[in-house]
Amino acid sequence: MNNRKIKFSEIFLNGSVFLSTFLSVxxxxxxxFYVISRGTDLIxxxxxxxxxxxxxxxxxxxxxxxxxxxxxxxxxxxxxYIVSRYGIALKQDFDLAGxxxxxxxxxxxxxxxNQMYSKEVGSDVVDLDAGMIFQRISYIDHPTSLSRNGAExxxxxxxxxxxxxxxxxxxxxxxGIRGSIITTLYLIFMTLIIAVPFGVLTAIFFNxxxxxxxxxxxxxxxxxxxxxxxxxxYGLLGITVFVPLTIRLTPAVNSNLIAGALTLSVIxxxxxxxxxxxxxxxxxxxxxxxxxxxxANKTQTTFKVVLPQALPGILTATFLGIGRIIGESxxxxxxxxxxxxxxxxxxxxxxxxxxxIWSMMTDEPANIALSSTIALLILAIVLxxxxxxxxxxxxxxxxxx
Amino acid sequence: xxxxxFLLSLIFVLALAAxxxxxxxxKFEEEKINxxxxxxxxxxxxxxxxxxxxxxxxxxxxxxxxxxxxADNNAIMNAMATDKAGIGYVSLSSVNNTIKxxxxxxxxxxxxxxxxxxxxxxxxxxxxxxVDGDYLNDTEYQLTLAFLAYVASNDGADVIANAGATxxxxxxxxxxxVSNHPVCAQDNSAVTLKFGxxxxxxxIAEALSAAFSPACGNVKTENDHTGSGDAHKRTQGGExxxxxxxxxxxxSRFFRDAELSGPEATRTQMAWDAIVAIVHKDNxxxxxxxxxxxxxxxxxxxxxxxxxxx
Lengths: 401, 310
Prior knowledge:
Chain A is α+β, with helices and mostly antiparallel strands. Chain A has helices at residues 2-39, 45-49, 151-159, 178-209, 214-227, 231-249, 257-281, 285-293, 298-309, 311-327, 330-335, 353-362, 368-398; strands at residues 56-61, 80-83, 88-94, 100-107, 116-118, 125-126, 133-139, 142-146, 165-171.
């Protein structure tokens, strides 16, 4: 009887082990599967290097001579519509973020679209190039042609001899995420510059300098608690302390990148302190004793003997910090804002990749495809970081440190 | 190794099983209605619930039918493409041919019907600017006024229509009005106008900003959308002098009484966003009344048969 009971519990335990592993791997696999299946369509070099905000132009025709144009044959191309009246061809296409747009497919060299007066302040002529986007075209005494009605209708309205073009509104291709990538890189760089020295030195204090009394224990417990504090609370700290501070000390006038980096530094500081301390702790006491016995003082021992041996640990801490910086969104919405920018200035608000996802998902309708692409980019960066941690720790340990 | 292979093949088999078709269900009349809704923070939900006369459900889940499903805009669109017994609601700009848009009180959801006020299920897009005298300098003030005039012009209406909503005013072309705003003849590329407020207006707001810039001396624009509540807060309310101050805030609901402290001239409605009840393409129902929708969302009608016969 006793024997059977043990067998049942063993089966139950073993079964639980397999089931839990199965569910965990399934959940993680599904996330990867989802992001990859939704996000790969939009991946393109232009998405990563392009502007988010399209440059818009307003123009009118300079010369309105009626001509006939010999157009190339586009009958093989799908969704290309020829406007024979003005010698251009339009195509129903997508911008970098996957929104439907009307793209200029071809412009005849003699087309009036090659000679337009700009209606903007301070510029006089402008021309339309293939690859640009039509927003709308307004006519005298006729309703405006809108791009959302599709290229076919747009082309046929433009071709209508009754309609006299009044103003042409066009832009270059938008929807790129270059600005958000640059902001994220800035954030990583600035945050690490602030947080790593402070974190490492604090860890040295706890492990090498302080005596193991109740004060140290209390402080260590505090830092441990801070590791688990939700980042939105650090965001509050950022908006009440760091943003006003940076406004006072720098040319910034509202939420800005420096305040974002300061807030992130505070967020990753506990992680860096804890991880560095762990790696200092495993340095054998024999090495310290040997160094002291050879006549080196405490400071020399710490910085020349102990610290180099803890380097792999500090590296791990740094890379863990980078992961946290890339993934942070809640705190950054407060201190950095959610405005997507193309030209990044450290004294101005901008958006990191994670906040860019938030911004795309709160839009109506949400842009899931672009969000998945950004998620894929973030996953790729984290993967690269992970591999480089393993590699550098391996190389360092091989060097015999 | 063997164990890992076993585990992976198990995952594969289960994934296949999950994808296999489900057996044929009961007749449509006996089908339970699957009610989909947006979450309580959504402006679309507020507009929909108020529009069907069930305002209690605007910010309160407990009055809804038991077993309702909360989903975002895309999830509701995707669900209606596959769930034959489902009903949900989305903004008119999201409607496409993968689902069936229902008539409301017998009126189809088209832009014409929204503007001539026969289609009643809609929510407003409104704007609020800083009060007079509360600007850093006169240029910013003049640019803010010019922007509001641009939004009300034919050009603004075209931009709004192009972004999927229905503009409420067409005061003539911007070219005919730009002389009323001499600030637009200057080079404004050193000035930044800041916009905030509702994130469901973000696409329209960004399109308006992008179109306005070349029309008014290439003024720089910054769109930072965090929710309708911030429209008043960051232009006239408690955060108006804070770090995230805005010149103009957008809201996807009418301003609440507590937000009406400023002069009336600082607020304006720019557009309507029609909300459409949607169902699966094979659903035989073509239209519903406010009362029927309320009964569905309350849980008084639980079967599609109730809707068809009663």
